[in-house]
Every structure is written in C-alpha cells, then in structure tokens.
Specification:
alpha+beta, Pnp Oxidase, Chain A, 6 strands, globular
C-alpha cells in the first residue's frame, strides 16, 4: 500500500482500535493467476504470535478456504471511517477535493482449524463481541443436532500475522486552520460516517 510519511501509523494501540471496531473485513488470496476475495468478520488477537493473529470462519461451500492449502500469504483489508472532503471546507482558497480515511492491511498465512473446540471458540466469541451492545443479547442455545449440522457447514481458520501496514489519511498535510474547519464541517454534517471520521481525527490530534 502506498503510504506517505505523514499518513503512516505504527502505534499498535491505534491499529488495534481500527481493526477491532471495523472487524468485518476483506480477505484476499491468490487463486492461480487470479485473486479470490471473501468478506468476513474477524477476531483480532494482538497478544498471540509475534505480531498478533486473526481468527474467523466461513461457509464450507465457499471454496476460498481450499486456497489455504497453498500456504501462501493472504491480505486482509480493514476499512475504518472515511468521507469525501470538499475544497469548500478549507480556509485556503486554492484546493481540490479529496477523500479522508483510515485503512489497515494485515498479512499472514491462513491455517484451517482442525478441532470442534477451536471452531466453537471462534463462533462463541464472535457472537459475544457483536451482541455486547444489545440490552438483551442473544445467547446460543441451539439443539445439539442442529448445532452439529451447522458446524459441519463451517470452516474455522487462524491467521498468524506476518506484517501490518496502517494508513490514516486525515488531512495532516493541511494547515491547522484548514484542519479545524474541515473537522467542524464533518462534525456538523449529520452523516454518521463523517462523524465517525471526525471522532478519529480528534483522537489523533
């Protein structure tokens, strides 16, 4: 990924926050002379392995997991908040439109989970993570026969992270006056994604 110095991020905490709060990501693997992509929820384990790990699951009907047998590096793309930035939002009179965003590229070699215990742990933790904000969270309580049938249709996997690239393009290259006006406009937009971007920009200042 192209990352100008002004937009490069190496702080593990900042990287982890983007991954954890934007955990529905794109997994890309080599498929012969082509590429194969799947859109999946991931769980981030920063303390597992030298650089952390990711775990996830997919339908067995999705042939993507069969590509893991190649034992080649895959790319997982986590997209954080993003928004269009108008030149009208700057104090400077001469400017052009742009797009501000945060994105994390994670690389690693996927490995298929071999035990039901590992798969159950991924499924339970995924549900727990995404039900946490509910006042009345759903608790898995499926009949054993149905649970077994569903699990047979799923493949769990783990990716030990080999490297991470992080880019926060948040207008750091603009003057402080331009940044302040841009931030205020995003805050006042009423658009949920723009407000998320504004919050990230405030946290980075």
């Amino acid at each position: 990924m192209y990352i100008p110095d002004a937009f490069h991020v190496s702080d593990p905490k900042k990287i982890g926050e983007i991954i954890s709060s934007n955990s529905f990501a794109t997994l890309v693997s080599k498929d012969g002379d082509s590429l194969f992509a799947s859109h999946l929820p991931f769980l981030y384990k920063p303390d597992q392995g030298k650089k952390g790990s990711l775990t996830g699951h997919m339908a067995k009907a999705n042939r993507h997991w069969q590509l893991f047998n190649q034992k080649e590096e895959a790319l997982i793309i986590f997209n954080g908040p993003h928004a269009y930035i108008s030149p009208k939002w700057y104090v400077a009179e001469v400017a052009v439109p742009t797009w501000n965003y945060a994105t994390i590229h994670v690389y690693g070699i996927p490995k298929i989970m071999k035990t039901a215990t590992e798969l159950n742990a991924v499924l339970d933790e995924t549900v727990e993570k995404h039900e946490a904000g509910s006042p009345n969270p759903w608790i898995p309580n499926l009949p054993v026969e149905l649970q077994t049938k569903l699990h047979q249709a799923i493949v769990g996997f783990e990716i030990e992270i080999t490297r991470i690239e992080a880019k926060f393009k948040l207008g750091q290259n603009r003057s402080m006056e331009d940044q302040k006006k841009m931030l205020q406009t995003l805050r006042d937009s009423g658009d949920a994604e723009s407000i998320r971007l504004a919050k990230l920009m405030e946290d980075q200042r």
